[in-house]
Write a structure and sequence with these properties.
The complex is a heterodimer of chains A (151) and B (550). Chain A is built from four helices and eight strands. With 151 residues, chain A is of the alpha/beta class. Chain A has a single domain, classed as Alpha-Beta Barrel (TIM Barrel), CATH 3.20.20.70. In chain A, 38% of the residues are buried. In chain B, strands 16, 17, 18, 19, 20 and 21 form a six-stranded mixed β-sheet that branches. A five-stranded antiparallel β-sheet of chain B has the order 1-2-5-4-13. In chain B, a hairpin with a 2-residue loop joins strand 18 and strand 19. The longest helix of chain B is centred in the first third of the chain and has 22 residues. The chains are: A alpha/beta (151), B alpha+beta (550). At the A-B interface, helix 2 and helix 3 of A face helix 1, helix 2 and helix 6 of B.
Chain lengths: 151, 550
């Protein structure tokens, strides 16, 4: 499946592994925050990269010390109107200094990518492939920015 | 007033084309109703009983004559020839067609107007004191700070999907005319002991179902930190405000459930981290202030004697001056209210012809500017006393001079069941009936300062809980009933009205109001105002009479 990263289309290499599925030996995977905190060492010993999938209610502070080991942070939208993920992205970038990929996944709209880009999200995965082109276009919806933000 | 630069103009034009695309996708079936709902709400578009309702932003209640004329032409071309001013100083159109809304917004954009963030769970239009810049009790003009906040809130990327709507008000005067204590964030300009001017920041106020008075989170904030402090509060709210229940999602519930002390420490911790990266420079403040510089007042205005002569010769003019004009800090000038509370017209409504008449008066007599008030009237803020007689005559010719500002017939009223899909009961019809029952101006003037606020449902758009007399429409087995509260106030001595007793039926509501007024007249001491009497005697004497036959 194709995703958008840094405004380019590329093939996704990451797989989310749910808590009740054993960790595969290879490949780039993301896990929930709880699993990351519990199985950090095991995750880092694998041959593939490891990342974390955050949900809106997750407290991201315990992650701060691990950020240099995290290949991707997914922000998982259960519904598009849950704005907590926007603040999480902003804090990961501006407070915690995370420089890796932050990817939006789940139920959100192409209309939100302008805002998401501005709070530090640099990759976008959509279940509906039609949304990819819409999202690329929506990134340019506005040329004016009033606030200082992540970009 | 603030004039858009190229960037400001570009942004609202880009917003129009974004919305045009979204509307098209919805009409083509590419965007679902729930998704489109969230997007259209952020552009002020509701779906109402008869048609969509579009709410247009009037930032801090300031309008130019050119904008007023555009509102008039839009009312003619896209609506039924009128519009409605709201308690947040905004404008509503009740009859636009969905497919034409993008064009309507395009028209508004040509005069620096828009509907951005006038609804939805986002940062709303900032409201302010309608006498800003002209009142004598002002510490500093709040409008430059409102404009700074307007820019900061517009398309703020992090706070576009909040738990619930979020409203900010700023007042610069010692007398609060902007209901600051009932906003999610309230900002007062204050002077500290060192004589510096800064802000007192309140949070957690709000009306609606659970009215709560805002609490001070910071007694004094230096001006340079305004935006960082707002950002810290919003970030805490965005992360921790409840999202499980929309009736508990406003910041007032977060502050209440977290406790003021803990909430404040969460905000301060975040603020200390970000404050040095978000400084508001003096140059920036001065640049915006320059756009609100006082107009070129005529120093000889006070020399006029015709005003006194007119007062001596015309008792109707005397009444209008007494009730519908206010003192001005410049001698020889007064502020003149345009009453949108004529007895036979829904409160806050204004026709295209009236809008144009007011625009003409503003151009001729008040530097081309108009303000909207949170009590749903307009103000010509800078009228020379020599011109007041003419202004009065012309307003009167357009039924805009009912001398009732601040009186019992200057009711705040929502559109109610006639237009709104949320309402449980009618409000416009009740307002009309109360007006008909109170047709004696001398009586109205005798009973003086009484604020009636009436909402058609719990959402409380007309701020009934802070009305001196609050009327709330409720649904009782499919019938319209009305619950009454007494003793509310949104001014300095903020108070939430107390419930009088069981609700009354539609047939009884007008008689109930006149009974309440009657009890006041019998109970008052000398020139004691309604609110003071209620405070002194309590609800009992009112209850006794209202429920005498129950």
């Amino acid at each position: 499946m194709q995703i958008i990263k840094d405004r380019q289309l590329l093939e996704n290499t990451w797989t989310f592994i749910a808590d009740d599925i054993p960790l595969p030996e290879n490949g780039d995977i993301t896990v929930t925050l709880a699993r990351w905190l519990a199985d950090k060492e095991q995750l880092l010993k694998r041959s593939g990269q490891a990342g974390v999938r955050l949900n809106p209610s997750d407290q991201i502070e315990p992650l701060a010390g691990d950020l240099s080991n995290i290949g991707v942070i997914e922000l998982n939208f259960p519904i598009f109107g849950d704005g907590r993920l926007f603040s999480q992205a902003r804090l990961l970038r501006s407070r915690d200094g995370y420089q890796g990929e932050i990817r939006a996944v789940g139920d959100y709209l192409p209309d939100q990518v302008f805002y998401l880009s501005r709070v530090g999200v640099n990759a976008f995965e959509f279940a509906d492939p039609n949304h990819i082109q819409e999202a690329l276009a929506a990134m340019n919806n506005f040329s004016v920015r009033y606030q200082a933000s992540t970009n | 007033m603030y004039q858009y630069n190229k960037q400001d103009q570009t942004l609202i034009e880009e917003r129009v084309s974004e919305f045009r695309g979204q509307t098209q996708r919805f009409l083509n079936g590419e965007l679902g109703p729930d998704q489109f709902r969230a997007l259209r709400l952020m552009n002020g578009l509701y779906v109402q009983t008869h048609a969509p309702m579009l709410r247009v932003a009037v930032p801090y209640g300031l309008l130019s004559s050119k904008q007023l004329r555009k509102l008039a032409s839009v009312a003619r071309d896209y609506d039924k020839g009128y519009c409605h001013f709201t308690t947040r100083q905004n404008v509503q159109y009740n009859w636009p067609e969905l497919g034409r809304v993008p064009d309507l917004l395009g028209e508004l954009a040509t005069v620096q107007m828009h509907a951005i963030q006038t609804s939805g769970n986002c940062l709303r239009n900032t409201s302010s004191d309608h006498l800003a810049g002209i009142c004598k009790d002002e510490i500093e003009d709040p409008r430059p700070y409102c404009e700074i906040i307007r820019q900061w809130t517009t398309l703020h990327p992090e706070f576009a999907f909040l738990p619930r709507k979020f409203k900010i008000a700023v007042s610069g005067a010692t007398h609060d005319r902007a209901a600051v204590q009932f906003h999610d964030i309230g900002v007062y300009l204050v002077e500290n002991e060192a004589g510096e001017i800064g802000f007192r920041i309140l949070a957690g106020g709000g009306l609606g179902r659970t009215p709560i008075i805002g609490q001070t989170v910071r007694p004094f904030l230096e001006k340079q930190h305004l935006l960082s402090y707002l950002e810290a509060i919003l970030r805490v709210y965005n992360l921790f405000g409840r999202r499980d229940n929309k009736y508990k999602a406003r910041i007032k519930i977060l502050v209440k459930e977290t406790g003021l002390e803990k909430f404040t420490s969460m905000v301060e911790k975040e603020w200390l981290r970000i404050k040095d990266d978000m400084l508001l420079s003096n140059e920036r403040i001065d640049e915006i202030k320059a756009q609100f510089a006082p107009p070129a007042y005529d120093a000889t205005a006070k020399n006029d004697s015709s005003f006194d002569a007119h007062l001596a010769g015309n008792s109707a003019f005397v009444k209008w001056v007494k009730y519908n004009t206010v003192e001005h800090k410049v001698s020889g000038y007064r502020g003149a209210y345009v009453s949108l509370k004529a007895p036979d017209s829904p409160p806050g409504d204004i026709t295209a012809e009236q809008l144009e008449a007011v625009a003409d008066l503003a151009d001729q007599y008040s530097f081309g500017e108009i303000r909207s008030t949170h009590r749903q009237n307009l103000v010509l803020a800078d009228v020379k006393q020599v011109d007041l007689f003419t202004v009065w005559q012309q307003l009167d010719a357009f039924k805009l001079a009912t001398p009732n500002i601040g009186t019992v017939t200057d009711m705040i009223c929502c559109p109610g069941l006639d237009f709104c899909s949320l309402a449980n009961a009618g409000s416009i019809g009740v307002a009309k009936e109360i007006n008909e029952a109170l047709d004696d101006l001398d009586y109205i003037h005798d009973i003086g300062d009484i604020k009636i606020n009436m909402s058609g449902c719990m959402n409380g758009c007309a701020h009934q809980s802070v009305g001196h007399i609050g009327i709330l429409g409720v649904d009782k087995h499919g019938e319209e009933w009305y619950q009454i509260t007494l003793g509310g106030s949104s001014e300095n001595e903020a108070a939430i009205g107390e419930r009088l007793g069981p609700s009354v039926s539609k047939e009884q509501i007008t008689a109930t109001i006149t009974t309440i007024l009657d009890v006041y007249v019998k109970q008052r001491l000398e020139d004691e105002a309604f609110l003071e009497t209620v405070k002194r005697v309590g609800l009992e004497p009112f209850k006794e009479r209202v429920y005498a036959n129950h």
